Amino acid sequence: MRILAGDIGGTHSRFAVFRLNDGQLEQQRRLLLASADHADADAMLAACAAQLGDDTGFDAACLAVAGPVRDGVAQLTNLPWRIDADTVRRHLACGQVTILNDFEALAHAVAGGVAADDLVALLDRPAAADANRVVLGPGTGLGVGLLVRHGGSWCVVATEGGHADFAPRGQEQMRLLHFLQARHDHVSYERVLSGPGIEAIHGFFRSQAGDTGNGPEAVHITRAALQGDELALRTMRLFVEALGAFAGNLALLGMARGGLFIAGGIAPAILPLLGDGRFADAFHDKGRMRALLESVPVSVITGDDAGLHGAALYCLRQR
């Protein structure tokens, strides 16, 4: 059995060819494409087909897409693209085609078990084996997926939880909210906990000194913070505190005694900042629920292929 898996994001799109061998999925080929280099989903999939060359013809395909999926049609949140099964079939010879939300695919990867080498423990506690789990991740956007334990098996729930209202903690974050409200009609957690969110926080602090010009990109801010730059550090400390608070909210929402997993492109790059105590303090700061959260293990998924593996696992389960 041959499977094509895809992970389509606002910045990067990844594809991999898997083969089922003796009951195990083996990754045979992998492609990485810059999403912004393509005009639309058709162009992206045409580029994928061209790079695969003759290595097409799949029993099943599953594309994980960064945006809501309704009736098998995905609308990317941070790109004006729509993707459906017919779009995939136009470019790639596939049998069964499925479109998933990207964090739904990540949740399937967590349900199947992420390799120990691809996990770093932030809050190292024993996980309750049959308890719910949560997956979240800041990147170009902010994704959330739930794993609910029911009847001895996992039920994966796709969400758009990253678009819930941003809830500021303290006066500084309240001022950040007002800053963002002047620029957006709705201030969600994604406006703070994402690459553009890091840039917005940095802009918020610069504005306090009268600097309203364009600032550095998120990747440069995170690197500068790790090198000790004062303004970048202030930016990333607020980011980490907001991430801890949001993660704690989700752990309560999902009763995630089985663990909370942080994916996406940002968290693996800022592990020293996530481990300095600010994330943990904000995660636990839930009043009467503090003791419950002190029992929830939290890990960072450092590998960038978990979404692809989750998409391939979904194909297997469907068949």
Features:
single chain; 319 residues; alpha/beta; Nucleotidyltransferase, domain 5; Hexokinase, domain 1; six-stranded mixed β-sheet; five-stranded mixed β-sheet; 11 helices; 26% strand; globular
Summarize the structure.
This protein has 319 residues and is α/β, with parallel strands linked by helices. It is 37% helix and 26% strand.
CATH class wording of the largest domain:
Alpha Beta
Strand order of the largest sheet: 9-14-13-10-11-12
- Range of helix content: 25-40%
Low-confidence sequence ranges: none
Number of domains: 2
Distance between the termini: 10 Å
* CATH 2nd-level architecture of the largest domain: 3-Layer(aba) Sandwich
Q: What is the string of helix and strand elements?
A: EEEHEEEEHEHEEEEHHHHEHHHEH
- Strand % is 25-35%
Largest sheet: 6 strands, mixed
Radius of gyration, CA atoms, in whole angstroms: 20 Å
The helix tally amounts to 11
Structural class: alpha/beta
Overall 3D shape: globular
Summarize model confidence as the mean pLDDT: 93
Strand segment count: 14
CATH fold descriptor of the largest domain: Hexokinase, domain 1
